[in-house]
Write a structure and sequence with these properties.
Layout lengths: L1 H26 L3 H10 L3 H19 L4 H21 L4 H27 L2
Helix pairs in contact: 1-3, 1-5, 3-4, 4-5
Length: 120
């Protein structure tokens, strides 16, 4: 059980680090992100709100009591990202990246559920 708990924390850390950074970059309106959102036709305020929501989701995943809430937030974000990339015909590598992150998130969810049901 300790091995699974350790694996879960490693996966959480590997997920939270980059997602927190990407949320922060959107929140502060980095010029490269502004160009990308403008090309898609989205307002800058929407990008900044999305960045804040991404940070909230990332931080929630750090706390076991809030982890399912954070996973739900990120599930919605990644679903939206997937469809946005499909609509705007982004390169296939972008879609693969979204699906890889979603698979990572699902692995965290499965481990979280497994550990919560087997420890009791």
């Amino acid at each position: 059980m300790e091995l699974l708990t350790t694996l879960q924390w490693i996966l959480v850390a590997l997920f939270v680090g980059p997602t927190f950074y990407y949320g922060y970059v959107k929140m502060i309106a980095e010029p490269a992100k502004i160009r990308k959102f403008a090309a898609w036709g989205y307002p800058i305020k929407m990008m900044q709100v999305l960045g804040v929501v991404e940070i909230i989701g990332a931080v929630a995943i750090l706390f076991p009591e809030l982890r399912l809430f954070g996973i739900a937030i990120w599930g919605i974000i990644l679903t939206g990202t997937f469809f946005n990339n499909m609509i705007h015909r982004e390169p296939k590598k972008e879609l693969f990246a979204v699906l890889t992150v979603l698979a990572h998130l699902l692995l965290i969810l499965v481990l979280n559920m497994w550990l919560n049901t087997t420890i009791k």
